């Protein structure tokens, strides 16, 4: 379980805090999205969890332990695939395991399994330049999976893809989540994407933000795109868009 | 081949113009024609290829090798520690303001006519572009890639070997391609100023004999060797870093 307890943070160059005394929790195995206007601090939440930024107050816990005492408790997938062009697909996927000094034989075994699961076995010895945008994101996801953490932080991973690929990738991601039972925290600008994927949606509306509105998505898994046409879901979508509009105008 | 055609055509035109002017002046000791230079190159082939070319190439190769080690070493040190960067960078830049031709005789005073006086001139001319270009390569590492590695628990050492070094490879090859002609020039200048063998020395000797074609022959040979070396490095670069455009 991930827990933010009274977390406060301000970038040194900013006059205003990004967040003050922020509290929220994400249960094990949940799929939770964070939405909010550009620059509201969504990615900062991830940077704090990753330890790339140091909070000025409060504490972040994973499974009840402060993150400072933990290693490899989360795995991050950024918006860009950030695959290393000099490494093959298999070598890119193995990178987190290499850094964790996992034996080569074990790396190869896990790599083969995950490549099979993401449907890219035949590309293991290819280079990123040989893959389409959607395939690269699948490789990046596979790399994230093999970082060995149960908490995955996905920062707008599909935003650079065209609409049809994005829709395919959303369905693919849900399938992977159901298969691996990981906890996913997902940042997106796209309200429909958040509704389709998540159990809960956390909405950032203010700056600095002290809490995030917690919205439950009234849809069961496995999901179907047709569900998005239901009257209550359309209403939810409109409500969320309205909240975001208001936050932009504040 | 097609992409090199404009260069070939331009070179051919320039050679024809040169040939025309040289024939018009008709004084080989002032301006020898390309054909006269080729003939002289053939006539002098034994001393040029068997004695002076190996001497110059030894200076060039040793100087280049030391420059690569020194340049890359300085780049790594500056990248690893901002304090070292602040201390070294101005000194490295200042070293390039020293006029090589003025200081080379001093090296001859220190090291005599041994190979090391000439190697030192070569190093002075080549370590700078290597150090600065490779350092820029390290600096060009994408911050987001570095942060991604940090989220995987990478140490500074991991980040250097797995990210910075490959990222700087294109710069390294560019540096080598810049350094090769400079090292050849450095060796030739050093030989001009004081040597007992080498293409620079040979060219100077021909000058004292008012042998215009003989002055040009070793210069042409130096250019060909430098172009060949750059060509070989370009082929290796192409084989090693086909991903260059993906960065």
Please characterize this protein's 3D structure.
The complex is a heterodimer of chains A (250) and B (247). In chain A, helix 2 (89-99) packs across helix 3 and helix 2 packs parallel to helix 4 (133-145). Chain A has 250 residues and is an alpha/beta fold. Chain A has a domain at 1-73 and 157-164 and 188-250: 3-Layer(aba) Sandwich (Rossmann fold). A six-stranded mixed sheet of chain A has the order 6-7-8-3-9-10, sandwiched between helices. Chain A has a four-stranded antiparallel sheet with strand order 2-1-4-5, with no helix packed on it. Chain A has helices spanning 42-50, 89-99, 104-117, 133-145, 163-180, 191-197, 231-249, and strands at 2-9, 19-26, 31-36, 57-62, 65-66, 74-77, 151-155, 183-188, 200-204, 213-216. With 247 residues, chain B is mainly alpha-helical. Chain B has one domain (52-241): MetI-like (MetI-like fold, Orthogonal Bundle). Chain B contains ten helices and no strands. In chain B, helix 5 (100-111) crosses helix 8. The radius of gyration of chain B is 22 Å and the shape is globular. The two termini of chain B are 27 Å apart.
Question: Largest interface, with Cβ-Cβ < 8 Å?
Answer: A-B, 23 and 20 residues
Sketch the topology of chain A as an H/E string, one letter per element: EEEHEEEHHHEHEHEEH
Please give the largest β-sheet of chain A.
Answer: 6 strands, mixed
Number of strands of chain B: 0
Question: Structural class per helix/strand content of chain B?
Answer: mainly alpha
For CATH, the homologous superfamily of chain B is named as: MetI-like
The coarse silhouette of chain A is: globular
What's the CATH architecture name of the domain at 1-73 and 157-164 and 188-250 in chain A?
A: 3-Layer(aba) Sandwich
CATH architecture of chain B: Orthogonal Bundle
Strand coverage percent of chain B:
under 5%
> How many strand units of chain A?
10
Output the CATH topology of the domain at 1-73 and 157-164 and 188-250 in chain A. Answer: Rossmann fold
Total individual domains of chain B: 1
CATH secondary-structure class of chain B = Mainly Alpha
């Amino acid at each position: 379980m991930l827990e933010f307890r009274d977390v406060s943070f301000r970038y040194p160059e900013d006059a205003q805090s990004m967040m003050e005394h922020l509290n929220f929790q994400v249960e094990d195995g949940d799929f939770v999205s964070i939405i909010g206007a550009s620059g509201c601090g969504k990615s900062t939440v991830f940077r704090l969890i990753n330890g790339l930024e140091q909070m000025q107050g409060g504490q972040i816990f994973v499974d009840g332990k402060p993150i400072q005492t933990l290693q490899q408790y989360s795995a991050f997938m950024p918006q860009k695939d950030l695959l290393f062009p000099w490494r093959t697909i298999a070598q890119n996927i193995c990178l987190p395991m290499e850094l964790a000094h996992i034996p080569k034989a074990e790396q190869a075994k896990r790599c083969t399994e995950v490549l099979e699961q993401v449907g890219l076995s035949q590309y293991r010895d290819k280079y990123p330049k040989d893959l389409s945008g959607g395939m690269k994101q699948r490789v990046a996801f596979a790399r994230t999976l093999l970082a060995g953490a149960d908490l995955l932080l996905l920062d707008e991973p599909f935003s650079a893809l065209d609409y049809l690929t994005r829709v395919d990738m959303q369905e693919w991601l849900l399938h992977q989540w159901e298969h691996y039972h990981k906890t996913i925290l997902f940042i997106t600008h796209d309200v429909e994407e958040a509704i389709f994927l998540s159990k809960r949606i956390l909405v950032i509306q203010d700056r600095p933000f002290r809490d995030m509105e917690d919205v439950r998505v009234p849809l069961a898994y496995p999901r179907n795109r047709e569900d998005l046409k239901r009257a209550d879901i359309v209403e939810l979508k409109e409500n969320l868009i309205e909240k975001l509009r208001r936050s932009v105008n504040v | 081949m097609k992409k090199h055609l404009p260069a070939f055509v331009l070179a051919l035109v320039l050679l024809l113009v040169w040939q025309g002017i040289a024939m018009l002046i008709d004084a080989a000791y002032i301006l020898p024609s390309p054909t006269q230079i080729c003939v002289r190159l053939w006539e002098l082939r034994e001393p040029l290829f068997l004695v002076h070319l190996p001497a110059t190439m030894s200076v060039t190769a040793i100087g280049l090798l030391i420059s690569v080690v020194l340049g890359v070493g300085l780049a790594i040190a500056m990248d690893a520690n901002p304090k070292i960067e602040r201390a070294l960078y101005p000194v490295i830049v200042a070293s390039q303001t020293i006029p090589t031709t003025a200081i080379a005789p001093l090296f001859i005073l220190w090291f005599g006519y041994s190979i090391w006086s000439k190697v030192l001139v070569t190093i002075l001319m080549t370590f700078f572009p290597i150090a600065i270009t490779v350092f820029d390569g390290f600096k060009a590492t994408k911050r987001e890639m570095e942060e991604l590695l940090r989220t995987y628990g990478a140490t500074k050492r991991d980040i250097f070997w797995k990210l910075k070094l490959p990222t700087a490879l294109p710069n390294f090859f560019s540096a080598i391609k810049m350094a090769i002609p400079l090292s050849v020039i450095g060796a030739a200048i050093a030989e001009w100023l004081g040597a007992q063998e080498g293409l620079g020395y040979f060219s100077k000797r021909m000058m004292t004999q008012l042998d215009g074609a003989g002055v040009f022959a070793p210069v042409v040979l130096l250019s060909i060797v430098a172009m060949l070396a750059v060509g070989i490095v370009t082929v290796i670069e192409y084989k090693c870093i086909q991903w260059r455009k993906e960065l």
